[in-house]
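To close the chapter, one final illustration. This time we ask the reader to focus less on the individual chains and more on the assembly as a whole: which components sit near each other, and how the overall shape emerges from the parts.
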Amino acid sequence: MLLQISEPGASTPKAACRERVVGIDLGTTNSLVATVLDAQPTVLTGGADAIVPSVVSYDGAEAVVGRAAVARGEANPVDTVASVKRLMGRSLADVAAVAPLLPNQLIDDAGRMVKLRFSDGRERSPVQVSAAILDELRRRAEADLGGPLGGAVITVPAYFDDAQRQATRDAGRLAGLEVLRLLAEPTAAALAYGLDRGTRGTYAIYDLGGGTFDISILTLVDGVFEVRSTGGDSALGGDDLDRAIAQVVLAEAGVAADDRAAVRAVVGAARAAKEALTDAATTALAATVGGRTITRTLTRDELAAIAGPLLDRTGKACRRAWKDAGFTPEELDGVVLVGGSTRSPVVRDYVRALFGKEPLCELDPEQVVALGAAVQADVLAGGQHDVVLLDVVPLSLGLETMGGVVEKLIVRNSTIPCGATQTFTTYADNQTGFDLHVLQGERETVEACRSLARFTLRGVPPMIAGAARVEIGFQVDADGILHVAARELTSGVSAAIDVTPSYGLTDEEVERMLIESFEHAEDDLVARNLRTERVEAERILAATRAAMITDVHLLDADVAVATEAAIATLEAARAGDDYLAIRAAVEGLDRASKPFAERRMNLAIAAAMAGKSVATVEAELGR
Amino acid sequence: MTATHLPDPFGALGLEPRYDVDPRALEDRFRQLSREVHPDRFAGAPASERAAALSRTRAINDAYQVLKRPQRRAEVLLAQAGVAIGDREVLKPAFLMEILELREELATARVAGDQAAVGRLAAVMRARQRALIDGLAPRFAALGGGDDAAILAAVKHDLITLRYVDRYLDECDAALDE
Amino acid sequence: MMSTATAATPQPAPPPATGIVITANAGAEIARQRDKRGTPDAAIRVGIRGGGCTGFTYVFEWADELRPTDKLFEAHGVKVVTDPKSLVYLRGMTLDFVRGMMGHGFKFLNPNAKGACGCGESVQF
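The assembled structure is written out below.
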């Protein structure tokens, strides 16, 4: 923590402490955790390596993460999970292309998120496997920072859909982290770059990781990072290039492509060869398959030829992104490289040719996302930075209408948070229910989009066909996650909604997993909740008191009395150890101070619209 | 299915309702307001303030999304002038025939995988889209000259036509993405 | 570790192990802010006070008037004072100034601190 000089007598002891917050890059291949230390984003190591391979190996109930898991994986492939990010929020059918290449046993869960079955018969969701990685990162961070974490910003590929984002957030909760925000990876990178270089202008962020590709076009102006468009492929990365090389090698050697062990051996060798070609023009590739050794030289030109079709897929997404943003590549001020796969000269040459400019890569492409996430965590934890991120919805959100057509309510690249409503009417007399189907994607037909959830709306008052009007409201929060609400307009009745997420976990499932997991037994959970609520209470009390002093003129007498009473109630609750009572008191204070909050917000808006300082507007309003 | 209430996007951004909005001024206003009320700036505030910031930001974002597109801007102004575009608006049969024929051509090119042909069809339709949008400004400028009903009817006609044009271009994009 | 630059100051600063060390960066920044404040004679008061989640927080403010019991440390043309009670907990401390991507500020490198809470805004002795 850095201190500033106060006026005499003005050094005030902090009423509440801010706990440490971190940024986490939860990657397909590698993961990292970073925090802001003394105003500088810094990667944390927990006394080990900065980079933790995103690999989890299970020995019964015990999970081993990182390098140890990689080592264990050679002897226990079935119980060792790599690239679990590819499975997040995906059904077995979705991952049919990669499933045969994985050593793990994947099982269908009635078309919902795929599960993994381990050799002892245990089944785990990809969410639980990701949580094990996050848990390891949390432990490392806590070891470095000497205390429990206050929260984390976790990055996701910009092109992650709703199901994938929800799965990531659930993994964070399961790892005992307060997820402050899900942040798009290219946006995180732009944040680290923009602040480091004091950049302004419009930039493309080309992010090719181990398993995902993202392209974002952002405008940076005076601390506002506005994402103009984003695109990508949440199943395209360096892993795919390794497999493409392996396929060529296997075909030449006459080995069947469905020989899993052979494929794995050659994929490993292909990755090593690819990495060697970052510095050398030619390298040797060697793999042992079924007792015989396959050797081959691989040149950078051959790599470029093999990578061609994959890179063209990134090119297509880039072209769409700059078109959506309303820019040509010539108009862009630069293109920034992010992700381990952009170390390859083959990728750099492609990006240079595509954008017609030398790509920027001053910051370590493997660390920049975690560093940016740490910056955003610091901003959210109340660090005084004049930084605002304006991120977007990557894929349009809509509802199925008659005839299997998708009606878009929120179009892609809308700035979040955002919302939209649509009204439906009944098509039969005395119809009291609706079946609604929420989808995400750009295509017009239901089959070509992703099913996010099915809703059954009940309790619509019986009327003649067409008389009842049901309003469906979509709201996308700052994490890019969709919330749906419905009400019947003529009667004013809120219709009940039953949500069946197509891929995600229900809240009950997450809660159950939390309780089941050995480390977070019920007592732990209560203690953790109590700690969280107390910190929240301290924070709210401090913020409310500060606002009551600075904006006392906006505080009506009756609101002031109610707020004071609610403050007293909260203070009493905070002294006790009933976290539910604290939570209720926090909510009570919120209700009491709501009119005050609204007035403060109105003033801020009025000032911004007039382009004046708040003080000037206050003066004009005649105080 | 119809869009229900149209909130006033001009009001949400504190702008005078008019068609010829300066795009730079619109962007500046959007950024400036976002900077003031974005929920990230209220992360440590009581929930009531966070909720207020969230709903304001949502309104600002939704308004910006509408106003930055000339077509959507025109739709808002038309609705504010009391002219609604319904679900079953009737267009001239000749126009519908032409669109149907163009759709068939597109479908043929798409099936044949003829990207160049798709590109040509898209270019023709894009020029048409441009012309229709460019035509909106003079129409709105002429409002208040006594013949408003006829002008608004013409705007409405253009906007309905544009919906067909847009849908066609969406299909072209989908074909080019294949 | 850090220079105390005693040669340039009229009064000798105590040896590093018992006093407060001011780094060149900290000195330059204090001087800059002091000039901006328009109080060429002002010192900086450092100290500790009860509060915070682990027991104590630092005092770090301008001192326009000194108290008779204050201990004075000078380096790089700037003055830092502390009360004798606080000095017990600040002995051997280095006052530094750092700049990072996310801003800048003063840093207390205090060998007496047994631990800091997560936020670093309060200290334990």
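The domain at 521-620 of chain A is CATH 1.20.1270.10 (Substrate Binding Domain Of Dnak; Chain:A; Domain 2). The longest strand of chain A covers residues 224-233. With these observations in hand, you are ready for the problems at the end of the chapter.
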